[in-house]
Specification:
Blueprint (H helix, E strand, L loop, with lengths): L3 E5 L5 H10 L3 E5 L14 E4 L6 H5 L6 E4 L10 H4 L4 E3 L6 H16 L2 H9 L15 E5 L3 H12 L3 E5 L11 E3 L3 H10 L2 E4 L13 H6 L5 E4 L8 H9 L5 E4 L19 E3 L10 H18 L14
Parallel strand pairs: 1-2, 1-3, 3-4, 4-5, 6-7, 6-9, 7-8, 9-10, 10-11, 11-12
Helix pairs in contact: 1-10, 4-6
Protein name: Glyoxylate/hydroxypyruvate reductase B
Keywords: NAD, Oxidoreductase
EC number: 1.1.1.79
Amino acid sequence: MAVLNIVVLNPLADRHKEVIKAAEPNVNIIVSDEKNVLEHMPECHILVTWGWAETQHLYQAAPHLEWIHALSAGVEKLLFPEIQAADTLLTNSKGIHSIPVSEHLLAMMLAFSRGLTLSIRQQNAKIWERVPTDELHEHTLAIIGLGAIGREIAKKAKALGMTVLASKQEMTTELFVDKLYLPDSDSLQEMLAQADYVVIALPLTEKTENLIGLKQFSIMKPSAYFFNIARGPIVNEADLVTALEQKLIRGAGLDVFTHEPLPESSPLWTMPNVIITPHVAALSPAYLDRAIKLFADNLTRFIQGRDMINLVDKGKGY
């Protein structure tokens, strides 16, 4: 078999290269940056990049490219017309984000329930005053999108004594979900009306863009908290601001936004009932180790002609 050229648009440690080589010794690993990557594309067979990276011009310069692997779960920028019309394989790193994202979400939920958001502000002002507190125990969490991340969130929420509702494309038996809903409008409304905490855990597609707006916020309890750890455009951000200003919901924890970085002009920055983190929920010291391990597994499958993990349906976008 001829040597396979793998171009990786991200720095790799020696241990990452060793994992890839262990899966298939007969490969040439080329680690590049965006400035120089184009020169490597004519001989590239496999491209490893991020789902938000501009790669259409790279694809057009790569006549031997057989497979693109995204180090991220999202593949928004990789679904350009040329790849959708071709047999080029597209895979992602879905499944490796569950632990850090679920912990990040719970941190934000606990920050609200235990009054930490207000306590931190009072600490900065040297104010000694008790703040209102609550418990997650026996409260209801609604998870919109029960994939790998959603399941890990459900597992941790049940451990804290919460009631878990979730929506999913197919009705399946779910160990940590008290009630499962299909993702139609009526079911979504029923789920939202019961929830004390609502989290978006969906991929961004044409169907999920602007899925949550003023109508959905109006259905939620005024005491409910809303969280987005998925993709910003799934939520109508202007409607979210309105919902917070009009106290249709109590607060929001946001890791993703329609435009990133979040513009300085956004009113979300100064709202006392909002937690903002700069798209870091999935970050972890173990992130790249997990991503490369998954890629190496798929590389073995690719070489052997076996079914691959996380093969993206280019029509659905995930």
